[in-house]
Design a protein that fits this description.
Distance between the termini: 39 Å
Mean pLDDT: 84
Structural class: mainly alpha
Strand content: under 5%
Largest sheet: none
CATH class of one domain: Mainly Alpha
Number of helices: 14
Radius of gyration: 19 Å
CATH architecture of one domain: Alpha Horseshoe
Shape: globular
CATH superfamily of one domain: Tetratricopeptide repeat domain
Low-confidence stretches: 1-11, 24-50
Helix content: over 70%
């Protein structure tokens, strides 16, 4: 299982829920003004949200011991165990820059495809949060450098390369060159028109840029690839609603309310239904 997802799976849902209730925009191209909007939000944030929670004294003591154990490890296998433990505590404290830094050190000490990808994905998770723009820029550059080193050694048509490139693409969305990310996603679709993460990312970007019919097209494909997935259904319902097709959104939202066990998802679906 990919490490970055073990505690942060709710981040993707949060992004979708937030996008669902954005006012309709006037953006013209996927990605061109997404970065500007996100930059403004990050700049207005009073504190760096990577550090939202302090560790308890016992957790801090445990963290310091694990960092020492990591530093003293002589093999990749042992160092990786301690790096995972340190990163997990940092992630629980929402200190994603620190979690990424430990994987950066792991990749520096034991360079390999696996450690490069771990570091890339750790920085990628940090980029996904609303951080101060300077920190976002730094983490984006780090993620990009590790993804690029990893991808240089991969078959570009392999599933792992397509997944890594889909993630790499999203690191450009918080920079001044978001169209680089869009180009990478389009390259992925040329290789595999049914690549799930690429379709999900393009759907989200289409929602952010106000291209709701495009979002519908992408999320319809996502739902075909993930039948009976309520989160995919919510993405499609959101796109339908924003595109003015409430009659198509309603049954999906009602199904979510009836079947989901996720309070956030249920509340978001109910909020949409109340607007109809």
């Amino acid at each position: 299982m990919r490490r970055p997802q073990y505690l942060l799976s709710g981040v993707a849902l949060l992004a979708i829920l937030l996008l669902a209730f954005l006012p309709k925009g006037v953006l013209k191209k996927e990605g061109t003004e997404v970065a500007a909007k996100q930059t403004q939000t990050a700049t207005e944030t009073p504190q760096n949200q990577a550090h939202n929670k302090e560790l308890a004294p016992a957790e801090q003591a445990k963290l310091e011991q694990w960092k020492t154990d990591f530093a003293q490890s002589q093999s990749l296998e042992t160092a990786q165990v301690w790096a995972d433990s340190v990163a997990q505590l940092y992630t629980l404290a929402q200190q994603l820059d620190s979690a990424a830094a430990i994987y950066d050190r792991l990749a520096t000490r034991f360079p390999s495809d696996s450690t490069h990808l771990r570091a890339a994905r750790a920085y990628y998770e940090g980029v996904r949060f609303m951080l101060q723009q300077q920190t976002v820029a730094q983490m984006s550059e780090k993620a990009q450098s590790y993804y690029q080193v990893f991808l240089e050694k991969q078959d570009p048509k392999s599933p792992i390369a397509l997944e890594a490139q889909a993630e790499l693409a999203m690191t450009y969305m918080r920079t001044s060159t978001p169209m680089k990310g869009v180009a990478l996603l389009r390259q992925n679709l040329e290789i595999n028109p049914k690549h799930l993460t690429t379709l999900e990312n393009l759907g989200l970007l289409s929602m952010e840029s106000g291209q709701y019919q495009k979002a519908v097209d992408y999320f319809q494909q996502v739902c075909e690839l993930k039948p009976n997935d309520l989160y995919a259904d919510f993405s499609l319902a959101s796109a339908y609603a924003q595109a003015g097709k409430k009659e198509l959104a309603r049954p999906l939202l009602e199904g979510i309310v009836a079947k989901s066990t996720d309070p956030a998802l249920i509340n978001a679906a109910k909020s949409y239904l109340e607007q109809f």
